[in-house]
C-alpha cells in the first residue's frame, strides 16, 4: 500500500485503451496527426476560449518550456521556496531559459502572496540585476493546498504590474479544480493566468502533460514555444500516442473523476487519521496530499506494516507526506487508518 | 499506403502489450522501479559487457544528451552534412552542450571518412577556435547505407587520436545491425564507439530510446548523464512504461525481427522498382530506406494513387525517399511497384 | 618590423593622452559619466542620425553581444566561412546567443552574396530546423576587400526579406570607410545595415569598440543590449576610460587619418611587392591587408631578416598575409619591399 | 567629494604611466607578449607558489569565469545574500556556468559560516536537485568586514568535504590583505582557497583584474579557463596594456600602499563620525567601507553640502554607505566629518 506519490500509480485503463485504439494504421509524425490536431478544440472547449496547447511527456518539460518562453536569460522567476521548479527539477527552468534566476520566497500554506513577491523584487530597471519576468505558482501547491481565484487574481495583478507573466505549475491541476470547486477557466485566464502546465500524468495518464498558453509569446516569434519544444527534444515522433492520452483524459470528465476520487481518498484519510490519532493534518487538505505528524511510534509501525510514504520532517514527530491518487482504494485508506489506530493504542 | 517514414507506423502489438502488462500496482517513480533496473542486465547481455544505459522518449533527446556529456561548450562536433543532428533537431545538440558547434562535412553514401574529419579540424589547441570534442555518425545513415566495422574503427581511431569521442546516432540501429550482419557489440564498442543513441521508436516502440555509454563521462562527474537527463526534463515519472517498451523490444529478438522485416521490404521494393522502372536506387539499399529517381510522371501517378512518400530532389527527376518499417506489408510494396510499373507503361 | 596584424601596434598617442586627461577627479561608475554620455551625440553626428551606442573593450564582445540581441537560441547566423566570428572567436556568438548556429558560406573575395545566403537557408518555417536570424558580414573583409554599398544593400534586402537583420563586423570599419570612399552612414544604415560592431582597437585605440544599433531590439525588451553587456561582464566600472578613447578616436577625424595611413601603407606595400616580385596580390587591396604569394625563398628570406607576418597557405607558394596599421612607417614598408626584391634577385 | 564607491576614483598615476610606457613598438596580440608572460612570475612571487593567472578587464568577468570553470550547469554556488555575484552582476555566473544556481544565504557581518552553507545543501547526490559545486565569499565583504584565516579555512574545509571549491571574490582583496594583516598566500591557498578574483580596478587600476587559480581545472580540460575567457570575449587583443597595469600595481607594493591609504581613510572617517555624531558604524570597519546611521538630518545636510554617498536603508535612520579609495584625501574625510558635526549641532 503505497502513499509515496500519485505518480507511483499506473495509468488509468481508459488511457491504455486509448493508446491501443490509436495504434492502427499510419499517421504523420511530429504532431501533424489527427489526434494532435483535435487537441486544439478539446482544450478550447475546456478553457472556453482558444488557447495554444502543446503536449509533452513530462511536467518538468512543461514547466521549463512554458517559463523559458516568457523569461529572458536575465529574468527572475519568483516562486515559493518549496516549488517543484525550485527543489525538484535539477535546474530545468534555469537551463531552458538560458540561465534565468529563480527567486525562492517563503509563504504560509505553500502559497505566494503578492506582497512577498513585490518585497523580493530588487533593482527593477537596474542593469546590474536580473529583471522580473515571471511568477510561478503550483496549483495545487506542493503541500496540498489550493489557491483561491482571488489569490490568483491578486498575483496576476502584481505580475502584470511589473510586466511579468503568471505561470501555473498544474502537475495536480485536476485536483485543484476539484478542490476549489471552480472551472478550469476560472482558475486560470479568468483570474489572469498567462501560462499553465496542465498535468495529466499524476492523475492517470502514462506520460502526458500539456503546455497551455493564454497569452501568446512575442509576436515577433510566434513559433517560439514549438521551436523550443523541438530543440529540447520534447517533440515526440509518434505524437498521436501523446495526444490520445490527453484526449481520453478529457473524455467523459475522466480527469475530474480521477481527481475527485483522489481528493476524496485524501479527505477520508485525513478524517480517519485525525479520529484515530487525535492529530489534525499540518495543512488544510484541499487536494490529494496530507501532511501530518503521525508520531514516531505510529510512523515506524506503519512502515513495518508495509505502508509506503515519505518522511516530512519539520511538522512534528513522525512527520509524513501521504499522497492519494486515482487508484487509491477505500480499503487501502482504511487499512492505513486502522493500522495507525492500532499502533497508537499499542504505544 | 505510407512510405514517408518508419515513424508513421504505430507501435508493434508486443510493445502495447508490454505497457499494459506493466500497468499493475504501484512502482517507485523516476526510474527506481524493477523494469528500469532490469535494463542494465538486458543491455549488458545485448552488448556483451556492462554499459551505462539510460532510457528517454525521443531520439533528439538521446543524441543531444549523449553528445553534451562529452562535449564542452567550446567543443566541435563533426558530423555529415545530412546528419539528423545537423538538419532535423533544431539545434538540440547546440542547446544541450551549452553552445558547441556542429561542423558539417560532406561524404559519399552519407558517410564520414576519417580524412574528411581530420581535414575539417582547424586550429586544434588554439584558444581562438572551438576544439574537437566528438565525431557523430548515423548508423544506418540518413540515406540508408550502413557503416562497415572497419569504417567505424577508422573513425574511432581518428576521434581518439584527437581526444574526441565517437558517437553513433542509432535511430535506425536495428536496421544497421541487420544490414551489416554484425552484432551490436561489433558495430559499437568493439569498433571503438564511445556512445550510442539506441533507437527503438522507429522500429516498433511507442516512444523509447536508450542512451548507451561504453565510455564513462568524466570520473569527476559520474552522474553527469543522469543529471543532464533530469535537467532536460527527460526523466519520466512513470519510468516503468519506458523500460517496459525497451524490455519487450529486446525480448525474443523483436528488435531484430522488426528490422529484418523492414530491411527485407526495402530490398523487395528496390528490386521491384528497378525491374519495373529500369532505374536503380541512387544509393545502396542496406537498411530500410530507398532513394530513387522515379521520374516525374511516375512520381505524380503514385501520389495520385494515394501513395505517400517524401520528395528527394537532387538525385534526378521524380527523386523520392521511400521508407519501410516493421509494419510495411508485401502487399503494400507490391502495390507500389505495380502502380509504378503501370505508370511507366502509360507514360 | 611587424606585419602580423594591426593589433600588434600600440595605441595612438592621442588615445593615451585622452585617457590621461580623463583621469581627474571622480566620476560615476558603470557608464553614468560625462564621457560615456557624450558618446550618444558623437555617434549621432558620425552616423547622421540617433543610434544606440554601447562601448565594450573587445571586438569579440561587440560581435557576440550585437548578434545575440537579434538572434534567438534557435536562430541561424549566416556568415562567410572565413569570418572572424566563424573561425577566431571560440564560439562567442554561439555562447552569447544561447546556442544559435553559424552557417558558414564560401564566396569570392571574402564576401557573401545574397544568392549564396538564400541558397543556404533551409527549412524556413520548419520547427525541426534552426531559423534564419542574421546575416553577418565583415567590413573590411578578412582578406582586405571592401563591400560596396550596393552589395550591402542587396544583402540587407535579402536579410529583411527573410526577417533577418544585417550585422557588420567592423573591426576594420575605418579602413573600409576610407577604402570605399563612402561615409559611415552610407556604408551602414543607408544601405540597410541594422547593427555594427564599430572597431577602434585595431586602428589606434588601446581597447575600445562600440556596438552601434540602427534598428532597436524588441520593443518588449528595450534594455536587452545593456543587460546582455552587464551579464557578459562587459560593462566597465571606470567606463570613462573607454568612452574617452572613443571620443578621442572620433575627434579631428583621428579614426579616418589612421585608416588612411594604414590603407596607404598597404597600397605602397602592394605596389612595391608587385614591382619587386612581379607578383600581384591574390585579392584586391582595398583596405590595410595584403595577401600575396611571395614564393618560398622570398618568404624565408624575409623571415630570416626579421620581418614578421603570418603564413597564408592556399594562395600559392610562400603565401603570406601582411597587415599594415596606423603606426606602419614608409621606412618599414620600403625595407620589406627592398628585402623581398633582394631575396628574389638572389634566388 | 565623492564617497559613493572606490570605483568612482580614477587610476593611480603610476598605472597610467605604465600604460604609456608599454606603448612602444609592436607586441604579439592576445597575451603572447612579454608583459603578459611576466605576470606568471609576478603572481608566483606574490602567492609564494606557481599559480594560473589570467587577466581580464572587469570583476564580473573574473568572478563568472572563475566560477564557471568549476561549476557544471547543474551546480549550486553558495554565497552570501549580499554578495556582488548575487545582487550586482545581472546573473553573470548563471550565464557563464550554463545555468548554475546561486544559493543566497544570510550571515552576520556579511559573512558565510560553514554551518549556514551546510544547512543550505539540499538533496546532495539526488538527481532531481542542483548539486553543490562552489562556495563563493567576498573578501573584503560587501559590508567592509574581513574574513579571518580561520574562518576561511573552515569554509574551505566544508567546501572540500562536499567536493566543492572555495572561490574568493577579491574585488577589494588588497583592502582585505591590509585589514587582516596577513599575506596574500595566507588569505588564500594556505587557508584552502581554490580560486581568486584578484581585483585591481577599485584600488587604482584603470580596468584590470586577474583570475588566479590555486587548484587547476579538470585535467581533461587544461585550457578550460583560457577557452572560456576567449569565448566570453574577455581576451584583449592588445593584452600588454592589461598586463602592464597589473605589473605596475604589484610593483613597489603599490597595491598595498593604495589599500593602506584607503583603509586608513575609512578608519579616520569612522572615528571622526563616531566622535562627531556619537554613533558607531553598524559593522566593524576592517577595510575601506563604512556603514553608518547618520540620522536623517545629517544625511540630508551632507547631501545638500555636495557630499556623494549611497543610501543604505535597514541600519537606521539616515543609513549610509561611505567608501574610501586610494585617492581619498584627509581633507575630504575631515570635511565630511566636520559637516556632519555641524549638521548634528544644528539639528
Note down, in words, how this protein is organized.
Four copies of one chain form a homotetramer. With 347 residues, the first copy, chain A, is an alpha/beta fold. In chain A, 41% of the residues lie in helices and 15% in strands. Chain A contains 13 helices and ten strands. In chain A, the strands form two sheets. The first copy, chain A, has a seven-stranded mixed β-sheet with strand order 1-7-6-5-4-2-3, sandwiched between helices. In chain A, strands 8-10-9 form a three-stranded antiparallel β-sheet, covered by helices on one side. In chain A, strand 9 (310-311) and strand 10 (319-323) form a beta hairpin. In chain A, helix 3 (59-70) crosses helix 9 and helix 8 crosses helix 11. The longest helix of chain A is centred in the C-terminal third of the chain and has 24 residues, at 254-277. Chain A is globular, with a radius of gyration of 20 Å. Chains in contact: A-B, A-C, A-D, B-C, B-D, C-D. The A-D interface holds A 73-74, 87-91, 94-95, 97-102, 122-123, 127-130 and D 73-74, 87-91, 94-95, 97-102, 122-123, 127-130.
Summarize the topology.
The structure is a homotetramer of 347-residue chains.
Chain A: H1 13-22, H2 34-47, E1 52-56, H3 59-70, E2 75-80, H4 84-87, H5 92-97, E3 101-105, H6 114-120, E4 131-138, H7 149-161, E5 165-170, H8 173-180, E6 195-199, E7 209-213, H9 224-231, H10 240-250, H11 254-277, E8 289-293, H12 296-304, E9 310-311, E10 319-323, H13 330-346
Parallel strand pairs in A: 2-3, 2-4, 4-5, 5-6
Antiparallel strand pairs in A: 1-7, 6-7, 8-10, 9-10
Helix pairs in contact in A: 1-10, 2-10, 3-9, 8-11, 11-13, 12-13
Amino acid at each position: 500500500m503505497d502513499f509515496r506519490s500519485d505518480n507511483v500509480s499506473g495509468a488509468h485503463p481508459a488511457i491504455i485503451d486509448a493508446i491501443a485504439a490509436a495504434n492502427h494504421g499510419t499517421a504523420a509524425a511530429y504532431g501533424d496527426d489527427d489526434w494532435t490536431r483535435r487537441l486544439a478544440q478539446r482544450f478550447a472547449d475546456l478553457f472556453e476560449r482558444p488557447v495554444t496547447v502543446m503536449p509533452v511527456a513530462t511536467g518538468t518539460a512543461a514547466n521549463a518550456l512554458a517559463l523559458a518562453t516568457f523569461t529572458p536569460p536575465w529574468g527572475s522567476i519568483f516562486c515559493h521556496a518549496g516549488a517543484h521548479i525550485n527543489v525538484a527539477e535539477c535546474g530545468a527552468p534555469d537551463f531552458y531559459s538560458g540561465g534565468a534566476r529563480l527567486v525562492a520566497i517563503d509563504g504560509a500554506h505553500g502559497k505566494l502572496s503578492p506582497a512577498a513577491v513585490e518585497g523580493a523584487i530588487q533593482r527593477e530597471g537596474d542593469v546590474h540585476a536580473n529583471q522580473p519576468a515571471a511568477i510561478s505558482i503550483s496549483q495545487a501547491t506542493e503541500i496540498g493546498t489550493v489557491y483561491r481565484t482571488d489569490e490568483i487574481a491578486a498575483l496576476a495583478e502584481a505580475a502584470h504590474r511589473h510586466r511579468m507573466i503568471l505561470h501555473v505549475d498544474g502537475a495536480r491541476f485536476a485536483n485543484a479544480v476539484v478542490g476549489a470547486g471552480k472551472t478550469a477557466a476560472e482558475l486560470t485566464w479568468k483570474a489572469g493566468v498567462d501560462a499553465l502546465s496542465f498535468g495529466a500524468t499524476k492523475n492517470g495518464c502514462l506520460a502526458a502533460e500539456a503546455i497551455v498558453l493564454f497569452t501568446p509569446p512575442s509576436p515577433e516569434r510566434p513559433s517560439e514555444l514549438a521551436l523550443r519544444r523541438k530543440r529540447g527534444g520534447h517533440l515526440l515522433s509518434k505524437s498521436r500516442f501523446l495526444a490520445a492520452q490527453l484526449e481520453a483524459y478529457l473524455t467523459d470528465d475522466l480527469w475530474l473523476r480521477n481527481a475527485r476520487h483522489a481528493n476524496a481518498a485524501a479527505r477520508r484519510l485525513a478524517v480517519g487519521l485525525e479520529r484515530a490519532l487525535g492529530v489534525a493534518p499540518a495543512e488544510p487538505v484541499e487536494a490529494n496530499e496530507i501532511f501530518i505528524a503521525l508520531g514516531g511510534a505510529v510512523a515506524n509501525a506503519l512502515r513495518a506494516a508495509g505502508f509506503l510514504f515519505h518522511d516530512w520532517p519539520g511538522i512534528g514527530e513522525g512527520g509524513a507526506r501521504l499522497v492519494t491518487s486515482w487508484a487509491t482504494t477505500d480499503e487501502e485508506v482504511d487499512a492505513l487508518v486502522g493500522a495507525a489506530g492500532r499502533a497508537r493504542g499499542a504505544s
